[in-house]
Structures are given as structure tokens and as C-alpha cells.
Write a structure and sequence with these properties.
Layout (H helix, E strand, L loop, with lengths): L2 E6 L2 H4 L18 H4 L2 H6 L1 H17 L4 H9 L4 E6 L5 H5 L4 E3 L2 E8 L6 E3 L17 E5 L9 H9 L3 E5 L20 E5 L13 E3 L7 H8 L2
Parallel strand pairs: 1-2, 1-7, 2-3, 7-8, 8-9
Antiparallel strand pairs: 4-5, 4-6
The structure holds adenosine-5-diphosphoribose (APR).
Length: 227
């Protein structure tokens, strides 16, 4: 059975109402990224960072998986599908996908600010500054901030190397090392790139461009994947 690896970014959740990162104003929900998504921001003003992610978590919980998330979950019932997502939302899982690798963490989880391997589920939508790990250190969102290592990268690379079909949906490919995954594909891997702004991006030759939103791309993907 062919291996289909799907690499998703914020664009797949846009039609669920979650804003992408790199909007035209360069802001993420009105915040500059370095104000809220860096270790320095946490050092400087942890309460502000906590508040920002509490808002994002509320939005994530209120959002529903859309037809594109559901299409991928359904596809996995027929094909060997692995999802690698840069998204911290859980919409793939709530659509029914169970093979989802989160490269940049998960907003509904927390981690110890002393030990990134001490990870906990968050009950509800709010993490308080008084919530601590067993060692007494404050819990922070379980997300990979700019400047931090991406622990799941090696696993993602192995998945990319094994792909017969690699489908990219809704990412600007501007954030590394995640964007490097495309460099690990086999020479005969079919690469499909779905993004309403696909033609703005430089992608490898032979890439099949689907210049549509994630939801509108579904019939194109069905056609391209038909055997
Ligand atoms: N369907 C598909 N793609 C869409 C849609 C849609 N409805 N709407 C927008 N897009 C595309 C945009 O054209 C853009 O190329 O989604 C992409 C979103 O790009 P970014 O906002 O840069 O998001 P992403 O690539 O996921 O960001 C990567 O950056 O901020 C960090 O850690 C964060 O994981 C994130 C990483």
C-alpha cells in the first residue's frame, strides 16, 4: 500500500475559523509573534504569554473540524495516511485522525517550565500562573516557540523519506526546520501543494499545485489520488 503523508499548516484550520499566522498585517491575532511566542517573551512577561495562549485555547475548543480535516480522517480508512501538522489545535484528532504528529506542540497540553518532557493535559481552557508541575515550577503551554528545538523533527523526517505521496496543505513554508521536510522526499514521490496562494510560493519542479482552499481542494485531491 502506498504511503501518503500529509503536512498541514494553519491554512487547513482557517475554514474552521482559526486565523493563520502570517496575515497581511504581519500580526497573529493582533500580537507580534516575538511578544508571545518566544522563550524571551515568557521570561519577560509570563502572564501575558499565558493569557494569549488561554485565548487561543478557547478559540480552538470552540472551533469545529472542517470538511478538509474530515476528508483526511476518512482517507485514512482506505489508505496508509500519516499526518504531520504544524498546528497546535486538535482539529485533526477531533475529525477522527489518529496518526497525527504535532511538530509544534499541542495547545490543550501544558509542560513544566523546568522540563519540556513533563507534559500534562489541560482540563478546561485556562492555564493559571499558579498551576505548577510536581517540582513546583509553573506550567507553560506545550508549544514549540521560536528559537526552541523541534523534538519531533527526526520522526517527521523519517516519515517524509518514506512517503510515496506527500500532500502539503495550508502552510507558507516559512518556518524552519519544519519547511525542510520537502527536502527529504524520494525523487519519485508525488508532491501535491494545496494553498489558495500556491502560485506565490517556490516549490520543487513537478509539484502538483492545487490553488484552492483546503475545503475546495477535496475533489481535486480525490481525483489526484484515484488509482
Ligand atoms: N485553505 C488552505 N490554505 C489556506 C487557507 C485555506 N482556507 N487560508 C489561508 N491559507 C494558506 C495561506 O495562503 C498561507 O500560505 O495557509 C498558509 C498559512 O501560513 P502561515 O500563517 O505562515 O502558517 P504556517 O505555515 O502553518 O505557520 C508555520 O509558524 O507561527 C509559527 O509555529 C507556528 O506552526 C506555525 C508555523
Amino acid at each position: 500500500m502506498r504511503k501518503i503523508v500529509v503536512f498541514t499548516g494553519a491554512g487547513i484550520s482557517a475554514e474552521s475559523g482559526l486565523q493563520t499566522f502570517r496575515g497581511t498585517d504581519g500580526l497573529w491575532e493582533g500580537y507580534r509573534i516575538e511578544e508571545v511566542a518566544t522563550p524571551e517573551a515568557w521570561q519577560r512577561d509570563p502572564a501575558r504569554v499565558q493569557h494569549f495562549y488561554n485565548l487561543r485555547r478557547k478559540a480552538c475548543i470552540a472551533a469545529q473540524p472542517n470538511a478538509a480535516h474530515c476528508y483526511l480522517a476518512d482517507l485514512a480508512k482506505l489508505e496508509d495516511v500519516q499526518i504531520i501538522t504544524q498546528n497546535i489545535d486538535d482539529l485533526h484528532e477531533r475529525a477522527g485522525s489518529d496518526r497525527v504528529l504535532h511538530l509544534h506542540g499541542q495547545i490543550r497540553m501544558s509542560q513544566s517550565s523546568l522540563d519540556s518532557k513533563a507534559i500534562y493535559s489541560i482540563a478546561g481552557d485556562t492555564l493559571l500562573m499558579t498551576d505548577c508541575c510536581e517540582r513546583g515550577a509553573p506550567l507553560r503551554p506545550h508549544v514549540v516557540w521560536f528559537g526552541e528545538a523541534v523534538p519531533a523533527m527526526d520522526v517527521a523526517i523519517a516519515m517524509a523519506e518514506g512517503a510515496d505521496v506527500f500532500i502539503v496543505i495550508g502552510t507558507s513554508l516559512q518556518v524552519y526546520p519544519a519547511a525542510n521536510l520537502l527536502h527529504y522526499l524520494k525523487s519519485d514521490c508525488t508532491l501535491i501543494f494545496v494553498d489558495p496562494n500556491a502560485s506565490n510560493y517556490s516549490v520543487p519542479a513537478k509539484t502538483v499545485l492545487v490553488e484552492q482552499t483546503a475545503i475546495k481542494s477535496i475533489p481535486y485531491l480525490q481525483n489526484l489520488l484515484a488509482k
